[in-house]
Amino acid sequence: MASFRQVLKRLVLGPPVRSDRMGQTLLPKRLALPVFASDPLSSVTYATQEILLILSLGGLAVLHLAPWVGLGVVVLLAVVVASYRQVVHAYPSGGGSYEVVARNLGRNASLVVAAALMVDYVMTVAVSVAAGVDNLVSAVPALYPSRVWLAVGGVALLAALNLRGTRESGRAFALPTYLFVTAMGATVLVGLVQTAVGHPPVAESAGWGIRPEQTDLTGLALVFLLLRAFASGCTALTGVEAISNGVPAFRRPKERNAGRTMLIMGGLAIGLFSGVTALAVIAGVRVTENPCDLIGFPGDCRSSGQRTVIAQLAAAVFGDGSAMFYVVQAGAALILVLAANTAFNGFPMLGSLLAQRRYLPRQLHTRGDRLAHSNGIIVLGVISIALIAAFGGSVTALIQLYIVGVFASFTLCQMGMVRHWNQELLRGSGDRAAIHRGRLINAVGAVLTATVLCVVLATKFTHGAYLVVLAIPLLFLLMRGIHRHYRQVRRELEPESGELPSPSRVHAVVLVSTVNKPTLRALAFARATRPDTLTALTVEVDEADTHLLRSEWERLGVDFPLEVVESPYREITRPIVHRIKELRRSGPRDLVCVYIPDYVVGHWWEGLLHNQSALRLTWRLRFEPGVAVVSVPWQLDSSHRRDVDREHHPPGHVRRGLS
Fold first, then answer.
1. Residue 633 burial (10 A CB sphere; 0-12, 13-18, 19+)
2. Cis before 34 (ω within 30)
3. pLDDT surpasses 60 at 643
4. In degrees, to the nearest 5, what angle opens at C-alpha 442 toward C-alphas 440 and 444?
5. Is 14 or 119 the better-scoring residue by pLDDT?
6. Long-range pairs for 647-653 at CB < 8 Å and ≥24 separation?
7. DSSP assignment, residue 250?
8. Are 280 and 256 a contacting pair, CB within 8 Å?
């Protein structure tokens, strides 16, 4: 019967998928939109709120500037969407910003982009899930004390869904994404209609005052505050590049489907963000980082949180506690949690590409049972959970680390695309008018994103962005170190010209602790290889046990010499290693082949009941040059019973216990 672990694994992941079914996991546009666009769509729920939070530092007097800040974000969003559509068509193989920069700006610049994107993906998961929980708490305030655990559970659920494969996760995420777009669109539309007929919605916080942290803002102080608000509002752009990273996951024709999906995503994100910002100003929404700064805030401001902007708008438009209020909150909470799915698609693909080029461990390149990059998904989930726990699930604290990596990758990618178009012009290939148009779009994008990057660094550095500024170069150095290691290993393992050198002699050494069937099989296997010398070796820890072993050896008439190595300190590993080194010194070109009898058990707990000294010995002998270790297995009955499930499970399930 299958073990509990295997049953649980199949319940979570589903049955394994054959490699030749890769094409069946590709996504149509209706599923690709929720998979890749949930991040920029979900930012509608907190981008406006972040603008209002910063402007509230100046009190009520500067809140009227929110529409102008929002307009700047909309223009930037439109330019970036247009720029990345160029990337989709120019580099349909996937890789997005990393691929563009690697081909046009060189290795070092590409590793900077890769590091920035990895940081961005981690922050996307942490911020999106934490914000989703905040919206859930806005609807059900009693859940406030459990918000960290809810966020951790949300990340774990997302990881499990993505481990089932891209197509499966696309189906799971489609309904919540379309629910949010419909509910949020209805909120904006109904609110604007109410305003047009003379009954504008009024937020619950519209009558509250604000205790400003900064007063009499004029000149440079006001400009700096507006720049901070703009930098925070630029969180609306996070995840825009995800479609360019995931073009290979689209159905054919991949470039056209990915380009159209990006256009739809951009239109929806711009429309919803603009509507929410306009409606927040009309309804008079008030939000501050500290609820105690709100004059008129009901309840205890030290122990309860304020409602999100989305919750206040839904209550103002449809009525507090109405069915539509809960629909909007449910849609917002779900899409914010599921927005992290953009990172769960982008991070593993980027990790696989970097691993394939030897900048990350090779394990990140392999696919799991469901054809997903399982190791990358697990790594992303673990790091995101650690961040949520470290920052107490606070969106305000986490968001300070956000978007630095986003705009670093945006800027380098657009610069790379400008160089790409220049090279196309030099080659004289393609439609020159289209090339000039693409170069202009990417050049404008590069200038704008570089400007925003400078603004973000200047306004957010002391508020937590310095952590990201440190993390990116550390990741860069780590990837360079990994690549150096793989390059060194390849150089060491590269075969020299001529024939392969053969050992002068082969010494076979069979380790013996008792005379049983596994030991006799190991002796038989060693003899079958026809070595120059064959020795049975045992370590004398107890004189009585050694005497009993010799007697049994003679009684069975084993025709091999039994060599006994004394161990006055009752060690096993060191005396054997010392004896193997002596054999090696007798001939530098000799090969010593150590045969270790072991047996296969069917359950993990059976392995714990047996001596593990052979495992330590095997590990120690791996570092000795000219020594080969051969494991000779003996399958016990429990392993045969487990073998019934072999055709249903991939190889490698059987636990091994060493004798």
1. middle
2. no
3. no
4. 70
5. 119
6. 648/2, 649/2, 649/6, 650/16, 650/369, 653/3, 653/6
7. B
8. no
In DSSP terms, which residues pair with 250 in a beta bridge?
27
Please name the amino acid found at residue 544: A
| Tokens read off for 467 | 């952590």
Q: Name the pLDDT band for 658 (thresholds 50, 70, 90).
A: very low
Cα angle value 126/112/486 (rounded, 5°): 100
**Tokens 């969003």 sit at which residue?**
77
**DSSP conformational letter for 27:** B
How far apart CA 603 and CA 444 sit, in angstroms, is 62
Cα gap 534→593, rounded to integer Å: 9
Structure tokens at 99: 């691929």
Q: Kindly state the tokens that stand for 46.
A: 């907190």
Place of tokens 């899409």: 335
Q: Which of 641, 655, 640 is nearest to 608 (CA)?
A: 655
pTM score, whole prediction: 0.71
Q: Tell me the C-alpha to C-alpha distance, in Å, between residue 163 and each of 168, 211, 333, 488, 499.
A: 9, 48, 22, 33, 46
Q: 255: Cβ–Cβ under 8 A, 6 or more apart, which residues?
A: 88, 89, 92, 247
Residue carrying structure tokens 């010499």: 561
The whole-angstrom separation of Cα 82 and Cα 560 is: 78
CB 47 within 8 A of CB 196: no
The alpha-carbon radius of gyration of the chain (Å, integer) is 32
Instruction: Say whether pLDDT at 21 is over 70.
Output: no
Q: Which two three-digit tokens encode residue 649?
A: 């499970």
Three-class SS state of 506: strand
Dihedral sign for Cα 510, 515, 519, 523, please: positive
Rounded to the nearest 5°, which phi and psi values hold at 304?
-130, 150
Tokens (6 digits) for 503: 């050992």
Q: Is 655 helix (H, G, I), strand (E, B) or coil?
A: coil
| End-to-end CA, the chain | 25
Q: Are 230 and 47 in contact (CB under 8 A)?
A: no
Where are the strands (E) in 259-323, listed by range? 294-295
Using left for φ > 0, alpha for ψ between -120 and 50, and beta otherwise, residue 332 falls in alpha
Gap between the Cα atoms of 328 and 181, Å rounded: 9
Largest CA distance in the chain: 107
406-448 residue pLDDT tens? 888 889 999 999 999 998 888 877 778 888 988 999 999 899 8
User: Residues in the chain, how many?
Assistant: 659
CB 621 within 8 A of CB 594: yes
Q: Which of 316, 292, 289 lies closest to 400, judged by CA? A: 289
Sequential DSSP letters for 394-455:
-HHHHGGGSSHHHHHHHHHHHHHHHHHHHHHHHHT-S-HHHHHHHHHHHHHHHHHHHHHHHH
**How many CB atoms neighbour CB 10 within 10 A?**
15
Write out the two tokens for 622: 């791996």
The Cα–Cα gap between 330 and 132 comes to: 9
Asked whether the beta carbons of 189 and 195 are under 8 A apart, the reply is no
> What is the torsion angle, in degrees rounded to the nearest 10, for the CA atoms of residue 492, residue 498, residue 504 and residue 509?
40
Tokens at residue 483, please? 């690549």
How far is the CA of 164 from the CAs of 37, 174, 247, 351, in angstroms? 19, 15, 20, 18
Give the number of C-alpha atoms closer than 13 A to the C-alpha of residue 391, restricted to the C-beta side. Answer: 23
Residue entry with tokens 């900048």 = 359
